[in-house]
Here is the input.
Amino acid sequence: MKKILLLCVVAIGLMSCSSYKVASFVVDKTADYSKYKTFGYAKVDPDKLPKPFTMSHVIVIQQSITKEMIKRGFTLVPDGTTPDLSINLGIMLTIDKDATATTTGYGGAMPYYWGSRGYTWGAYPWMATTQINVNTYVNGTLLFDLVDQTKNTMLWHGSVTKVLDATNSTDKREQNLDKAMDALFAKFPVPAPAVKK
Here is the structure.
């Protein structure tokens, strides 16, 4: 019984550790992924990027994806070369808000004084104050389409949510993206080879 309880606690802990929501589906279930050797990225139009994203953000995303593709045996082709697989990326942003309330002071408990108190406080109940903080953050979703370049057909689509925030530092963005790519590529149709110990 203790082992079952421990497994449940571990499972709940693992579920709560991942802040990324991953959606994945294979469009072409008959595709033979062993025939694909190279990949590249669909051309990005900087004017179509949602603000505050720039091409520097796209490059960081592509670098994170490139690491995962190389792990799976694919080779990135230089720009201007036709790859076997094309990766078309999309970005969706939503602005979300959350609010927290912090109460400070006595909060309704009447203070007891030892000495004479011949004055009054103007605020009741007994000088409790509440401050409400509203935080605004960007919730971003990365959309990933894997396309057979010769047939011009989509083979796989994946998306990962809560990954993109252009206001984060470059280091924080890279850390978030690497974790998100681990989650996304866990559902990729071509698994990474097992790491030998």
Summary: Strands lie at 21-26, 38-41, 75-76, 85-104, 129-148, 153-161. The longest strand covers residues 85-104. The mean pLDDT is 74.
